[in-house]
Amino acid sequence: VGNSSVLTCPPKSNITMVTWKISPKVGGPCTLGYRADQNKTDRTNCSDSMNWKFRPDRDPALEIRQVGIAHEGHYTCEVVATEGNFHRTYHLIVLVPPRLTLYCDDQGTPVCKAAAGKPAAQVSWVLESNSTPKEEGHDNGTVTVLSKFTAYSTNMTNTTCVVSHPAGNQSKSIAC
After folding, report:
1. What pLDDT is stored for residue 156 in this prediction?
2. Model confidence over 109-123: pLDDT tens digits?
3. What DSSP string runs through 115-140?
4. 83: Cβ–Cβ under 8 A, 6 or more apart, which residues?
């Protein structure tokens, strides 16, 4: 989320026509088209964040700027060239890294929170804990995971929470 993403088409010479057909999970479909004989581009219902990366006659790649959850969906590039018709389909899944916070609750118990990640983060502790994480889903598809540290022994001073996520792993330590 937040980055730019470039989706490429099958590289062909002597392109006659290129069409990007986009079916996002949210909102209606959109198309970007290019006709070589008229050197003309066309767009239907596409947001400004989606456009050709370069000139479509040189490189028909699609660039999505500031990728958001709403961009998730299917992207198909269809190329018509002298040697035939070619297509490539992408299924875009957007990863949202969770925000990690670690704090001590009123009882002096470490609490680790991985907020608004997509998909849900895996929360664990460096030292053994019999904690069961709780998940809370949000309307935008993100998930907050909350885990309280439950110690087997009481003589611990420093505790480390580890958050594993496809967008990157994080860890923080605290003494309660």
Report:
1. 64
2. 899 999 999 999 999
3. EEEBSPPEEEESS------EEEE-TT
4. 12, 14
Residue 159, number of CB atoms within 10 A of its CB:
21
Distance CA 67, CA 47 (A): 12
3-state secondary structure at position 57: coil
For the chain, give the mean pLDDT: 91
What is the average per-residue pLDDT within 40-52?
Answer: 92
> What confidence tier does 108 reach under pLDDT thresholds 50, 70, 90?
confident
CA–CA separation, 97 vs 103, rounded Å?
Answer: 19
CB 81 within 8 A of CB 15: yes
Answer yes or no: are the C-beta atoms of 87 and 79 closer than 8 Å: yes
CA dist 34 to 64, 86, 168, Å? Answer: 17, 15, 38
State both tokens at 154. Answer: 């009481």
How far are the Cα atoms of 57, 72, 119 from residue 20, in angstroms, in the given order?
14, 15, 27
pTM higher than 0.85 for the full model? no
User: pLDDT tens digits for 152-167?
Assistant: 666 667 889 999 999 9
Buried (b) or exposed (e) across 42-70, using 16+ Cβ within 10 A? Answer: eeeebbeebbbbeebeeebbbebeebebe
